[in-house]
Structure formats: structure tokens, C-alpha cells
Amino acid sequence: MGNPIEYLKGVGPLRAELLKKELGIFTFRDLLEHFPYRHVDRTKINLVREIRPDTEFIQVAGRITSVNVLGEQRSRRLVAELRDATGVLELVWFQGVNGVQKLVQVGGEFLVYGRVGFFQGSPQLTHPEIEAFQGQVADRPEYLEPVYPTTEKLKIRGLGGRQLGKLTQVLLNMLKERDLPENLPEAVMAYPDPDTGLPQRWVSRYEAYRQVHFPQDPMVYKAAVRRLKFEELFVAQVRLGLIKSRRHRSSHGVVFAQVGDMFNGFYTKHLPFELTGAQKRVLREIRKDTGSGRQMNRLLQGDVGSGKTIVALLAMLLAVDNGFQACLMAPTEILARQHYEGISALLKELPLEVRLLTGSSRSKSRKEALRLAQEGSLHILIGTHAVLEDPVQFQRLGLVIVDEQHRFGVAQRARLWKKAEIPPHVLVMTATPIPRTLAMTAYGDLDYSVMDELPPGRQPISTFHRFEERRSQVMDFLKHEIGKGRQAYIIFPLIEESEKMDYENLEKGYINVKAWFPEPKYWISRVDGRQKAAERDTNMRRFVNGDTQIMVATTVIEVGVNVPNATVMVVESAEKFGLSQLHQLRGRVGRGAEKSFCILLTSHRLGREARERMGILTETDNGFKIAEKDLEIRGPGDIEGTRQSGLLNFKIANIVQDREWLELARERAAELLEKDPELVTAENRELKAFLQAQQGRTAWSKIS
Ligand code: ADP
Ligand code: MG
Predict the structure, then answer these.
(1) For 608-640, what is each residue's pLDDT tens digit?
(2) Whether the CB of 310 sits within 6 Å of ligand 1
(3) What stretch of H or E contains 505?
(4) DSSP characters for 182-231?
(5) Which residue has the higher pLDDT, 181 or 334?
(6) Distance from Cα 311 to the centre of ligand 1, integer Å
(7) 261-451 is a CATH 3.40.50.300 domain
(8) CA 210: distance to chain centroid?
(9) Is 275 in the pocket of ligand 1 (CB under 6 A)?
(10) Which amino acid residue places its CA nearest to atom 13 of ligand 1?
(11) DSSP 54
(12) What topology does CATH give the domain 462-620?
């Protein structure tokens, strides 16, 4: 199976080179895993008359009645007419014109196959598959013919969809059952039929590969695809399960054995509210992890406003109670300061040393924080990435919390390990919910907690979608809210690709807002990435303190900022933002007792996807639902932070469409590992061998 593709009969070095370059097919296995995307019944010849506006693919036999080369250079194309007994079909080639010209001549009889398009009302095929044809569909096999993804380059060099099928056929004829041994353990072979619920048995692996390429009929094909999808998901889940349990067994962590005075004192006397059920559950999970003797490595997902800060604070108090120091890291200066101020206020009655350290800390306070940390008299350090820098040394660092960042990288973790003999526990918190299916795959080897409950008494945020033409009404609404003493955000997009224009729009927008809201009645804070940190900070702070009523900003404020008095969020050119980004922005309001609003302004001309996004946001404010939709619309490849994750490179499974198989695979993998954690029993031998071989291959191709 690992044989180089050039050794397959009919390939040879030249075609092998092309297959590698164009399709990444290096070995026999790669060819076998190059799955057809559809099958066609090529035993049937259609008539031109049968073509309907919704006809997708068609196969027609006929005689060429004209051939013309039209246009110059890039628009140069060959147009031929093919006539059968019922009508005329136009054939068009833009590439390989010279080669086609030799083949396709007036009077010749051909069989053509391709996707139907319409040009000025008449049907045409662009770059059809074409072969000389004498009256009969001769050596047609009985099966449905597979259609493979291919490229224009390959088509021209005789490696179009059909030829790929022929090669695959050659390969399948060579393979014996033992070349594709069953890798699913007997205990996993049975599954409940999704329609009837009755027990079914997976088709064997050998059979599945044959049928997925050349199925006898559509039912058999479906069963084969299902089997291969399940296998792929199951194997991935077993692999993740193994990584996770090995990490659990081998890692050492400091032990937080007890809950002491700080935690208890704060909990009983200073906690400003009753914790939600989700917050309590997560705290229990953290307690269990940190008391276990192994290192905690936990991802906490909580929707915007679900109250992650207080969980972080209580976890830090747990560390302090056990004689350890704790550190809270935020992605921005603004957020770090906000955490520092909030947490210091909450802890003011307790005998605790809390300090702030950021890139702009003055040297005196910096020095002091460093000294206290090293001596061990500092209990809690709050800061930006500055806390990762080398001069920051702790006496007994026991817990690190990373806020609003689920992509806390390996390199950054490594820097933490240098700060303590035994690596501290790590809790990464993110407000970008990750759909369950994605979490199960991309983060399946991490421990994760979910806070899917908002504190009680929150008023839902009303979200509206408005076209730009109605901006003046929106501004009037803002005036009304500000008149009641509230504050508002107006956010402009800033995208790297169109940065210059975006800044111009921001500038115009700012001037515009100023015209609507003139001083001295109104004051505006402007915050964007081009400002110096100090200027940005001052503007930010004026808004936080209530000295300005409006903040005009780019997405620098996206994450974490907490101004409970702000009740209106206006997003300009909302169509330029992704779903989760809009959800984050919206999360900046609705933080106080007053009713809040989010207004999405877009241009009149909206694409289908953008329209869909606006619809989803106006319908729900549940971040997990939104994340699921985002995944559905964009597909797993595009979700932030998962791109590099080799774990999502599924060949046939799709975590959005196949979520029911993913759930089943996960369940079965867990059962299996529970009984046989290291896969040593005879029943799991093939599976283990398969995993090892796969591991070897991925290590070789450097996918981690
Ligand atoms: P996020 O999860 O987005 O970081 P925060 O920790 O900033 O959320 O909390 C949002 C707001 O909710 C804060 O004002 C916080 O004081 C408040 N809050 C957190 N937990 C509760 C609770 N259990 N009951 C009431 N209010 C809470
Ligand atoms: Mg937060």
C-alpha cells in the first residue's frame, strides 16, 4: 500500500510526477484514498432534446458539424458543434486548443460527457470528456462510473477523471483481502442503523474500498462510504484518547490539596453574587484536576458574559491557599488593567498582594513586582504577555490562567515551564465557543470545560439588522439612549487586506459621528490600532469612566472590555465581519441592568452568506449555537486556530455532516480504551498496528 505510485501499471515516472504535484498522490494508498465525488451511470446516452434547465451532467453521442477557433490570447477558444438526431450541443475549450483541434474534426463521431451550462439559452459543455465513438456503448462495465476530482493540467495530460478511475481499477484488481485487513475490533463492528435503529454490521474494510470506487448500486455505495467515514473518525478518536490518557499518566503537577482561608473567606464574605451552576461545576473540575497530582491543562469555554473572571479568581485563591503563586494573563493592556482593577477591588479586604505588570509598567513598579514575585510575597500577578518574559521569576508559581485566547501556543507554554520546577497548572479561557464536534476533534486531547449558562437576570440583547440608508434613524436612537445616561459603541471594520481604505472609512465615519454628536454636549472617544498605546489608553479610560458617551473604534475593543453602562453597539459594514466576531462585539453590551441593543448596519447589496449571518445574529445570542452555524457555513478548515491542526485533515469524514458518526466513534473509542487502555489484547491487534503505521506516516510527513 505504501508503494510509490510510479510502480502502478500505467503510471510511470512522468505521470507519477504530475499526480504528486497536482493531487498529492504519492503512493498506492493515496490513490485508493482519492475518493470519487460522484458516480454516473455512463451506460446511458442522452439526447440533446432531453436537456432541461436543471440538467447537471449529460452524455451525448453525435457528429461534429463545425469547428472554429475564436478570440485572441486569453479569450482564445475552440468552439465545436455536436449534432445528434434531436439537436445541437456546443462544446467549448479554453485550454489545450491545439491538441483538441487535432482530435475534433468535422464529420467525426464522438461520445461526450460533461457538466451542462447555458450560453444565450443554448446548452453547452465546457471542457467535456470526449472520445471517438462508433455507434455502440461497447465495453461499458456494469457498475456506476466514478468521477474523481482532478485538475485541468491532469486532464490535458491524459489523467482526467476517467483515467484516474482506470488506474484505481488496476490497483483494486491487484489488491488482496490481506492488503486491506479489517482494523475495527469485533466489538465495534456492530452499529445501530440511523433510520431504523436496528443493529447493523459494517461492511469489511476491503469491501468498502472496492465499493466506494466502483459500487454495484447506490445502497452498497452508501454503506461503504459510511463505513470509511466511521473508521476514520473512530481511529482519530482512539488516537486522541491514547494521547490524553498517556499525558494524564505521565505528567506531574503540584498538588492543591486543600481549600483554605482565602478561598473560603472570599466565598462566604465577599462574593458579590451567587455562582451559577456552570461556574460551580467548572470550579469542581478545576479542584479535581489540581488536586490529582498531575498537571492541569484545561480549556475553559464560556460564552461572552458567562462569568469566567470570577472562576479565574477563585482558582487563583485556591492556589494561594496551598502556598502557591498565581498569574493571570490577558491579551491586551486594557484588559489586563481592567482585570487588575476589578480583582483588586474584590480582594481589598483580604491580606493579599496583587500586582499589575504590562509592557508599559513604569520601571519602579515593575521592579517591585519582579522582586515580590521572586521573593514569594506576591500572591497574584496580573498582566499581558510581559509576564512571560525572562526577568519575571516566581518563587512558587502554581497556576497560570490565560484569558481570551484559545490559541495559547506551545512555545508560550514552554516559557512558562521555565518559571517553575514542576510546571504550573494551566487554565486557558476563551469566549469564542468552539462547536462540540470541533472540540471533540481539534481539541480532543485536551481537557475542556464548558460554561453554557449566563448569570441570572440578564436582559437579552435586542439585535437589529439595518441598511445604511437608515443611519439617521439609528443615530437618533443613539441620541435617545445617551439622553437616558447610557453609552454607545460604534465599531468600524479593519481588515488587513484593505487596511488603507478601512482607515479612510473610519476617518470619515468619525467625522460623521462628530457632526451628529457635537461637543460640548457630547464627547467621543476614538480608539484604533494606529494610535500610540498611551493615547489609546487615555481615550479608552475616558469611556470606561463615563467621561465620553460614545466610543468610535475598530475591533481593538473586541475582547473582554467591560463597561456595564454601555447599552448600544452599532457595527458599521457588519457584512465584513465573521459571525463569531460579531457575537464578540455584541457581547460588549448587555453587561449591566439596562436593556441593551445591537445594530448591524450593512450596505444594501448583500451576498447570500452575509444575509444568512445577519439572520442568525438577530435570531440567537447563544454563542454555542452561533459557533455551530459558523462551522456549517464556513466548514472546519476556516475556523480560527484549527487550520494547523493536522487532526482535522479528514479524507472522507466531515465533522459537520457526520456528527452522528463522530458521536458514535467517540463513544466506541472511549469504551474500547476503558477496557484495553494500551490496546494489548488480540482483538485490538490490527487496530494498534494500523495506528502505528499511520503514526509513522504522519511523523514522516511532519504533520503534528
Ligand atoms: P466573561 O465570561 O465574558 O469574561 P465576566 O467574567 O466579565 O464574563 O462577567 C461578566 C459580568 O457578569 C461581570 O460584570 C460579572 O461581575 C458578572 N457575573 C459573573 N458571574 C455572575 C453571577 N454568578 N451572578 C451574577 N453576575 C455575575
Ligand atoms: Mg472575560
Answers:
(1) 889 999 999 999 988 888 888 888 887 665 554
(2) yes
(3) helix 499-516
(4) --S-GGGSEEE-TTT--EEEPPPHHHHHHHHHS-SSHHHHHHHHHHHHHH
(5) 181
(6) 9
(7) yes
(8) 32
(9) yes
(10) 307
(11) T
(12) Rossmann fold (3.40.50)
Q: Grade residue 701 by pLDDT with cuts at 50, 70 and 90.
A: very low
Q: Is the pLDDT of residue 703 over 50?
A: no
C-alpha angle 295-347-390 in degrees, rounded to nearest 5: 45
- What are the structural domain ranges in the chain? 5-40+149-175, 48-140, 200-250+658-694, 261-451, 462-620
User: Predicted confidence band at 647 (pLDDT cuts at 50, 70, 90)?
Assistant: low
Contact 622, 305 (CB under 8 A): no
Nearest residue (by CA) to ligand 1, atom 18, is 307
Interval between CA 340 and ligand 2 midpoint (Å): 12
What is the grid cell recorded at 498?
484593505
Between the alpha carbon of residue 154 and those of residues 17, 28, 160, 394, the distances in Å are 11, 18, 6, 60
pLDDT in tens, 450-492: 898 888 878 889 999 999 999 999 999 999 999 999 999 999 9
Question: What is the CB neighbour count within 10 angstroms for residue 674?
Answer: 10
CATH of domain 48-140: 2.40.50.140
Per-chain residues with Cβ under 5 A from ion ligand 2: 560
Full-model pTM? 0.72
Across the chain, mean pLDDT equals 87
